[in-house]
Amino acid sequence: MRNLRLSRYTPQAANEVRSWIEDTLGESLPGGDLLDALKDGVVLCKLANLAIAPPGIKFKKSSMPFIQMENISHFLRACEAPPLHLPAHDRFLTVDLFESKDPTQVLQCLGAFSRRANAVNPSRFPTTIGPKRAGALSPSTTGATNGGLNAGAYGRNRGASNTSSTSSSTFNPISKPSTAVPSARAMSPALTGGSNASRATDSGSKSSAGPVSSWSKKSDEGNSSPAWNIHQYGYMGGASQGNQGVAFGARRQITSAAPSVPSLAEKERKRREQDAENERLRIQAEEAEHKRRVEREAEEEQARIEEEQR
Fold first, then answer.
1. Three-class secondary structure assignment of the chain
2. By mean pLDDT, which of 31-45, 77-91, 153-167, 212-226 is the weakest?
């Protein structure tokens, strides 16, 4: 995972951040790696002073490590404080830059800083890092509207939406139809996927399997959302948490079996077995040492006797 994250720190991404910093500050950064140019924290403090109100933050240009790390911490505190309010997942740690622990997080922080600074002070930060969007996205006004996914924002027209010119609220399947829109109609249990009245995209009729209700009970028709039923979607074989391997509040093991976690009793049993094995090995070592000592004494006695006989 660390190698995968480090691979995201590409020369193209670093050059894009370098160009944005140079255009914003109006000065050139030293050559070489981008992290080496930002390591002393002076450039970061200059960017922060452009985004926040006077008097800004004080910094020193020095070759001493603790002063350079202090400059970086000043920049991070400015990102956290108003008016920037960068969240924690967009900020980096001091060691991520000073010791190159996570260069990707440094680029992510500068990208988030550029977008936030552009929103706070667009005169000093006219550009941002990364792609730019034409406007805010809306879940209710898609299609060819000004605030939706139009051709000017993403390159192609997705067609007019059913809700872009009629309503600005979220779709509610159990809401009553509006009288101002003649095309709106109440939900009908006879207009399902295989009904006689449904139409295909080429205005041709679909299969004539007969009307099939989308509700489980007759009393729920038109009063609640359509339910899944075996007539339209088939029998799911009694799917449940048990046979699908799902447990709320626990991690789901998809590709491999869950790791075996021993209980306290099993841990105690293994500890006793280990203690008994250690004791057996100790006694065995003592017996072997005693046997060697006896043999050595016997050899010394034999040598003494032979010496006396000579």
1. CHHHHHCCCCHHHHHHHHHHHHHHHCCCCCCCCHHHHHCCCHHHHHHHHHHCCCCCCCCCCCCCHHHHHHHHHHHHHHHHCCCCCCCHHHCCCHHHHHCCCCHHHHHHHHHHHHHHHHHHCCCCCCCCCCCCCCCCCCCCCCCCCCCCCCHHHHCCCCCCCCCCCCCCCCCCCCCCCCCCCCCCCCCCCCCCCCCCCCECCCCCECCCCCCCCCCCCHHHCCCCCCCCCHHHHCCCCCCCHHHHCCCCCCCCCCCCCCCCCCCHHHHHHHHHHHHHHHHHHHHHHHHHHHHHHHHHHHHHHHHHHHHHHC
2. 153-167
Mind listing the pLDDT tens digit for each residue in 269-288?
999 999 999 999 999 999 99
> What is the Cα–Cα distance from 283 to 285, expressed in whole angstroms?
5
What are the structure tokens assigned to 298, written together?
A: 């016997």
Residue 235 has pLDDT above 60, yes or no: no
User: Distances from the Cα of 151 to the Cαs of 1, 162, 163, 168, in angstroms?
Assistant: 38, 17, 18, 20
pLDDT tens for residues 51-93?
998 888 999 999 999 999 999 999 999 999 989 999 999 999 9
Give phi and psi for 70, each to the nearest 5. Answer: -65, -40
Mean pLDDT score, 244-273:
73
Nearest one of 152, 41, 126, 56 to 92, comparing CA atoms: 41
- Rounded Cα distance, 33 and 11, in Å: 9
Q: Which residues pair with 205 in a beta bridge?
A: 199
Q: In DSSP terms, which residues pair with 199 in a beta bridge?
A: 205
Average pLDDT for 122-144: 67
**Average pLDDT, rounded, for the chain:** 75
**Does position 104 have pLDDT exceeding 80, yes or no?**
yes
CA distance 48 to 177: 53
